[in-house]
Amino acid sequence: MAATIQNIELKSSQIPLIYEEDKRLPLVTMQFVFTNSGSITDTTKAGLAKFSARVMGEGTKKLGSNAFAEALEAKAMHISASTGTETFVMEVGCLKEQFDEALDYFSKLIKDPNFTQEAVDKVKTTTIGSLSSKASNFDYVAGNELKKVLFAGSALENPSSGTIESVKSIELEDVEAFIKKNLVSSKLIVVIGGDVNLKKVKPKIAQIIEGMNKGRSTKLKKLSASSKKTEKVLLKETEQAYIYFGSPFNMDVNSPDFHKARVATYILGAGGFGSRLMEEIRVKKGLAYSAYARVHVSQSSSYMSGYLQTKLDSMDEAKKTVKEVISEFVKNGVTKDELKHTKKFLLGSEPLRVETMSQRLNRTFMEYYKGQDLGHSQRELELIKELKLKDLNAFIKEHTEILDMSFAIVTK
Predict the structure, then answer these.
(1) CA-to-CA distance for 1 and 354, rounded, in angstroms?
(2) Domain 231-411, what architecture?
(3) Which of 83, 157, 244, 246 is within CB 3.0–4.6 Å of 151 for a Cys-Cys bond?
């Protein structure tokens, strides 16, 4: 059964619900997805969204972290909270026969989260410990530095987990204020799938939502990546050079040309050994084990980024090669064979992207979230199938902004 979009009718509003029935296993999963509630909202204290999600993982105030976790474990139930850049997600998963009880615990958690100093201190300790250990992960360091360069002055310049300094500054009242503002029904999309009778559980889900604050829905602000061609070099005790690069990519999330961007970036740097960057940097010059470039297009940002590792003494040559490959790509486009092979891969591998229920639910959610019609992803494949070489190359040549590259490099 394909995923469908319905509504949960409340007294004063309608909540969108994405549903797919799957009876192959006696399992149920449900997500409450709150839009414009992820790390994009961390404008005062970096890492607050993810920190708040971790506090929501500490159980209810009445039961506490350990007793809440033990109660769930005894019935093989799972409840968690997580964040993305734009969303905050509360999820519950369980066996079919435990779903009513799981909903009860889910409701208790939303109504009475463990907002105590003890819970905040625990999350603060584990988060700072995690951030401290990442200080020697130079891929993490270089990736974060690139975000600082591309999105200086915005929430996106900071790592989603925050910094040690910002996490130390987060207090209990910050978490309470974040949850009160963002876990509200006006921002909610419900996603549910599995062996579940929707007609029976809809009223129970509606009851949980009725108990929540309605709050206020807010629009995401689109942030632009810098075109200043900045280079930031960090000196560390390392045996390799970590080169991260990025640039603006002018495209809206609903652009009718998005299928062209998928094909173009696969050929440039997302296609593994078949990509231009891998061919030049690894196969022909032996400068790195791998090299990638991708575009990121969402409601809050649109940019290209890529990375590679190389020997310290070949850093300059590797950086120069990246610039040359992308410049050549924009100037002359792709070949007939490259387009043919990319079409074959993207169309042939499609079944792998929709083989599980969670994949199909996520795809339907993304279509709805982006304001697209149901089935848009399938129609996009048809556009890829029919894509002409001259149209793809014309598209590539229009996007000269990807030549405005900034670099973040960790070296010795």
Answers:
(1) 12
(2) 2-Layer Sandwich (3.30)
(3) 157
- Show pLDDT as tens, one digit a residue, over the chain (412 residues): 578 899 999 988 899 999 999 999 999 999 999 999 999 999 999 999 999 999 999 999 999 999 999 999 999 999 999 999 999 999 999 999 999 999 999 999 999 999 999 999 999 999 999 999 999 999 999 999 999 999 999 999 999 999 999 999 999 999 999 999 999 999 999 999 999 999 999 999 999 999 999 999 988 889 999 999 999 999 999 999 999 999 999 999 999 999 999 999 999 999 888 899 999 999 999 999 889 999 999 999 999 999 999 999 999 999 999 999 999 999 999 999 999 999 999 999 988 888 888 899 999 999 999 999 989 999 999 999 999 999 999 999 999 999 999 999 999 9
Indicate if 231-411 has the same CATH topology as 4-210. yes
Q: Which CATH number fits domain 4-210: 3.30.43.10, 3.30.830.10, 3.40.50.620, 1.10.443.10?
A: 3.30.830.10
pTM > 0.90: yes or no: yes
User: Domain residue spans in the chain?
Assistant: 4-210, 231-411
Of 179, 171, 209, the C-alpha closest to 10 is 209
